[in-house]
Amino acid sequence: MDIKKYLEEKKKIVDAALEGCFPNTDATGCETGYPSSLYQAMRHSLFSGGKRIRPILSIAAFEAVGGKGDKILPFACGLEMIHTYSLIHDDLPAIDNDDYRRGKPACHKVFGEAIGILAGDGLLTKAFELMTKHSFGDQEIILNIVNEIARASGISGMVGGQVADIESEGKEVDFPTVQYIHTHKTGALILASVRTGVKLGGGDEETLKAFTHFGERIGLAFQIVDDILNVEGKAELLGKSTGSDLFKKKATYPSLLGIEESRRRAAELMESGIDLLNPFGPEVEPLKEIARFVIRRES
Amino acid sequence: MDIKKYLEEKKKIVDAALEGCFPNTDATGCETGYPSSLYQAMRHSLFSGGKRIRPILSIAAFEAVGGKGDKILPFACGLEMIHTYSLIHDDLPAIDNDDYRRGKPACHKVFGEAIGILAGDGLLTKAFELMTKHSFGDQEIILNIVNEIARASGISGMVGGQVADIESEGKEVDFPTVQYIHTHKTGALILASVRTGVKLGGGDEETLKAFTHFGERIGLAFQIVDDILNVEGKAELLGKSTGSDLFKKKATYPSLLGIEESRRRAAELMESGIDLLNPFGPEVEPLKEIARFVIRRES
């Protein structure tokens, strides 16, 4: 299959759905329900060229287990909104203090810190509004999915990982801590994306289990590759400066294990993740290809 | 009825339920699921002597329409977590830059800005995790409630109002803008608290309508009283400095209409709100008393 074409097609669908949530109209204040600057700030970060990996993973998993139609889209969009909010808050001066993101000035650089914080808050909250809006008769499953996404995004997931990441800066940390950071900061939401697709698509317990192990491996591999790219990626492809992890003395796989060993582990995780999907039919091909793409990517 | 005793009793129930969500154990890092500092920061703000007005309103409305048992508690707690997150983010240097809250140092003053931002994010996300955790067979209603709470907290509600508030600082603003700020920044979540109780308690459409108009009036009155207290309240009772609105040239009722007219309008809103509940029986007495308390309060 042509994974590039697949990713482009799915990205278009996700982008169109996100546009539907935040249409590009000239929102000018109170009458529209919220102030224009907030709206522009959310759009700035939401439409800044993200690869839409999380929503596409959720769609691919949904379709792999036989899910049909558009009912995955509110969750696909919700996952991307949560991911985007986390990037906006991460980039803030008080946290990672990054000026650029995907080749554009970070949200707070354009709109100021206050609007940056509130645009993040707004996107996070909007995700939960969107995911609980339509029920399609699957209320029990939807509550279960929203609960899992909240857990993966919060203190036992992404937020917890982010705090551990910040607190490990400049310290000698052990391997379990780096793994904690990776599996929580990045892995949890990627895993939740895969599981959301399986649950909403009607996959059985056995399938959910296999896809879960796949999602865990891909989530960890994704963050290891991120760390490798921060060391030796091309800034013009990444759209942000490289070397920042080293500068901030971040706890990463390359800093603990070196580049070669990190690359080997990421490839191993990817391969073993793909193997777990072998018992399934050709419907899982896109998921496997996404896994390979995650390792190969240069940005 | 003895409203002071009622509020104390309900506060105890809410506090115990919140303790159940964030037990005061010595959480020390990765093994507990999230870093200790994050956990302490959330507890610092969550247990800093809040009056629990929103959760108590939801419980009072729930019981007023005949709701029984504990199933309101996850929503009561969720509403308080969302309120607390909003206070933590509001107090940040980039937003209102307040050093004190309820007589204690603000979250970011104790734990630093990064942890302050992430503690807010964690509380907001935890609220949605909690509210979707148990379904009690009322999945349809719960999805509807969570959706309304998300809407009330987000860009069309609290976050939108907060942005309008910030952007109005130091400017000449008109009365509709002040009303927009008040109804969104504070009113929306108070209204959602009342409506949550009615919906979960099984109130019919007619009841929901009456309680909604009550909630709108009380929400607006609450913020007007807040503004009045900022001008002439006692700092030692409020636990924060007064006069900050004037200093920051905030758009408030007192700044536009003066203290006396603001006080008159708050009382009028309270009285007309209470009148709307007159057709109901003695079960609505607590709600009426809470409304009177909202006006009378000195902190």
Task: Tell me about this structure.
The structure is a homodimer of 299-residue chains. Chain A has 299 residues and is mostly helical. Chain A has a single domain, classed as Farnesyl Diphosphate Synthase. Helices cover 70% and strands 1% of the residues of chain A. Chain A contains 15 helices and two strands. The first copy, chain A, has a two-stranded antiparallel sheet with strand order 1-2. In chain A, strand 1 and strand 2 form a beta hairpin. At the A-B interface, helix 2, helix 6, helix 7, helix 8 and helix 9 of A face helix 2, helix 6, helix 7, helix 8 and helix 9 of B.
Question: Which key features would you list for this structure?
Answer:
mainly alpha; globular; homodimer; 299 residues; two-stranded antiparallel ribbon; 15 helices; Farnesyl Diphosphate Synthase
Give a concise summary:
The structure is a homodimer of 299-residue chains. With 299 residues, the first copy, chain A, is mostly helical.
Cα-atom radius of gyration of chain A: 19 Å
- Helix share, percent of chain A: 55-70%
CATH architecture field of chain A: Orthogonal Bundle
Number of domains of chain A: 1
Number of helices of chain A: 15
- CATH topology category name of chain A: Farnesyl Diphosphate Synthase
What is the CATH class name of chain A?
Answer: Mainly Alpha
Sheet with the most strands: spatial strand order of chain A: 1-2
Biggest sheet statistics of chain A: 2 strands, antiparallel
Order of helices and strands of chain A: HHHHEEHHHHHHHHHHH
Distance between the termini of chain A: 22 Å
Fourth-tier CATH superfamily name of chain A: Farnesyl Diphosphate Synthase
| Major protein interface | A-B, 55 and 55 residues
Tell how many strands the DSSP assignment of chain A holds. Answer: 2
Oligomer: homodimer
- Average pLDDT for all residues of chain A: 92
